[in-house]
Amino acid sequence: MTTPATPDDPTRSDAVKRPLRVLIGCDTFAPDINGAARFAERLAAGLVTRGHDVHVIAPNSVYRRSPAHTEVIEGQPMTLHRLPSVRWPPHDWLRFVWPWRSKHYARKVLDEVKPDVVHIQSHIVIGRGLSREARKRGIPIIATNHVMAENILDFTTLPDAMNRVVLKLAWADARRTFEMTRAVTTPTRRAADFLESTIDIHNVIPISCGIDRSNYAPDLAPRDRHRVLFVGRLTSEKHIDVLLNAVATLDPALDVSVDIVGGGDQRKNLENLTAQLGLADRVTFHGHASEEDLRAIYSRASVFAIASIAELQSIATMEAMASGLPIVAANAVALPHLVHDGENGYLFEPGNVAEMADKLTAVLTATPEERRRMQQASLDGVIVHDIGRTLDTFEALYRGEPIPQ
């Protein structure tokens, strides 16, 4: 990673605290719905509310470059630079910029924007080109990693042996990109440890994606029925089949229903599995929900359940915590960072259907006092993930200042 800012760098800590011009580079952004896109959107909107001039470079929905224009994201206006992109056929929504064109577009946007700092959200295509061109201009670069192998392997269409070769080359290239930056961040300490051990870099900084807790309305009252909730992309690494199989083994007397919110390439397969398990009348696939509808679904749920094995954080789990829900989660990657076994819910061995069913039963049959204790633990645990802390930390990194504790 590069050394701190030079004397004429406008982000120096001894400079006047003027608003910054920040260029955020994303390989996925609105209207995409996934954790990396949601984080970038909230970060950009939060920076706008603090008076910064925010520009975002991201794929267009068509193969055409859109002139710089204003889009309203999370209720805040910001400048978007949409690049020509093509659809990745194995994926249900993913679009990408041709890799050999990324530096060309980066040069054009950097010449136009002249940012004080560049913050890349991916080292794969847009972030890769942007970091290399920003470095030539002496512009400080911050990188945030949202990538895990499990997030992409299902969509390469390559044999396993080729996947291993591709991943090795990709991580080697990631290291070269990260070495150009002032700082590398990732959402949790576990995710930082994963990145450091995977590509042998040091001093990766864990910074929560953050959420605005005021957007959620926790209801600590007893529920009128048992509702299990999952929110997220319907993809294989989420292991929603484990959740469905676990629900199928629960005591019928519990009369459990399941709400699944989100879209993805596995929806049809999951609907078929639901029918095979005899759960068709108890499982509702909501698809994508509006923010207002999603908050209402969180508020009426009894427990949030997530069996995923590829979460570098999990914004949906934090939203569930901010809604006062107990959590049942796989003991994998970053989920134990949010779910403390026996406190705000329970952890289970990834892929273990019987253990997941046991943990769901423990929550659903808890006494009112025990349930209230778990709900309050979720509310207390999510405080450290407030978006205000996240913005404070990134502002410090942008300016080359010590980051707050």
Describe the SSE topology.
Elements: E1 21-25, H1 35-49, E2 53-59, E3 69-73, E4 76-83, E5 86-87, E6 95-96, H2 102-113, E7 117-120, H3 126-136, E8 141-144, H4 160-178, E9 183-186, H5 189-199, E10 205-206, E11 226-231, H6 240-248, E12 256-261, H7 267-276, E13 283-287, H8 291-300, E14 303-306, H9 315-322, E15 327-330, H10 335-338, E16 345-348, H11 353-364, H12 368-381, H13 387-399
Parallel strand pairs: 1-2, 1-7, 2-4, 7-8, 8-9, 9-10, 11-12, 11-14, 12-13, 14-15, 15-16
Antiparallel strand pairs: 3-4, 5-6
What labels would you give this structure?
Rossmann fold; 6-stranded parallel sheet; disordered N terminus; 37% helix; 405 residues; alpha/beta; 8-stranded mixed sheet; 2 domains
Write up what this structure looks like.
This protein has 405 residues and is an alpha/beta fold. 37% of the residues lie in helices and 18% in strands. An 8-stranded mixed β-sheet has the order 3-4-2-1-7-8-9-10, sandwiched between helices. The protein has a 6-stranded parallel β-sheet with strand order 13-12-11-14-15-16, with helices on both faces. β3 (69-73) and β4 (76-83) form a beta hairpin. The two termini are 21 Å apart.
